[in-house]
UniProtKB/TrEMBL annotation:
This is Methyltransferase type 11 domain-containing protein. SUPFAM superfamilies: S-adenosyl-L-methionine-dependent methyltransferases (SSF53335). GO terms for molecular function: S-adenosylmethionine-dependent methyltransferase activity. Residues 45-136 form the Methyltransferase type domain. InterPro entries: Methyltransf_11 (IPR013216), SAM-dependent_MTases_sf (IPR029063). It comes from the Bacteria. Pfam families: Methyltransf_11. It comes from Candidatus Zambryskibacteria bacterium RIFCSPLOWO2_01_FULL_45_21.
């Protein structure tokens, strides 16, 4: 089984339990800043999961589409956010038109992409976003491990692929893929590990 499939199957398995634990809006300051700099309302959420961020976009009047590879997560999302549009899709190769969206949102999703594949995913995000469109990406800061499968005991045992970055490492990847970085920030999660999230607001 390939690593991408392993991560998707994990999210299918844990969808209901995970979404119950992860439905409090997390990216509050980030969303407020994103909303203040985007021009337009048509948004694609790449790796939307169980629809936590979908709820916030819909409440704020956005024309929202969420895509995810996990059918289980999408089922929860469409039940929780009936006004959102959701589609099962690998966001490295979507079916959308060039320049179809005013911006994209990728909170905690690119971190499941192997580093060798991340440029292709960024190019696809760029393709479906209009020129000058605004993107948001958050990934976990590297503190030891570079990338690989992580097995955890929660939810009855799960395996997911993670890629970790330093702030400059991911900034350079963005620049290599012709994104300009509008703002970088760090968001420290109030969890046991005090996880640092690296946040990037970018323009295509």
């Amino acid at each position: 089984m390939d690593i991408k499939q392993k991560t998707v199957e994990t999210y299918d398995k844990i969808a209901s339990g995970y979404s119950a634990d992860h439905f409090t809006h997390f990216w509050i300051e980030e969303f407020d800043f994103y909303k203040s700099i985007i021009n337009g309302k048509k948004i694609i959420d790449l790796g939307c999961g169980a629809g936590r961020d979908a709820a916030v976009f819909v409440e704020n009047g956005f024309d929202y589409t969420g895509v995810d590879a996990s059918e289980g997560m999408l089922k929860v999302a469409s039940e929780r956010v009936p006004k959102g549009k959701f589609q099962k899709m690998d966001f490295s190769k979507t079916i959308f038109q060039d320049g179809e969206f005013d911006g994209f949102w990728a909170a905690a999703s690119f971190l499941h992409i192997p580093k060798k594949d991340v440029a292709g995913v960024l190019q696809e995000a760029k393709r479906i976003t209009k020129n000058g469109g605004i993107g948001f990406i958050s990934v976990k800061e590297k503190s030891g491990m570079d990338e690989g499968i992580i097995d955890e005991n929660k939810y009855g045992g799960i395996s997911r692929y993670f890629s970790f970055y330093t702030q400059d490492e991911f900034k350079n990847i963005l620049k290599q893929n012709d994104f300009s970085v509008v703002k970088m920030s760090m968001h420290t999660e109030d969890d046991e590990r005090k996880t640092n999230w690296l946040c990037y607001f970018i323009k295509s």
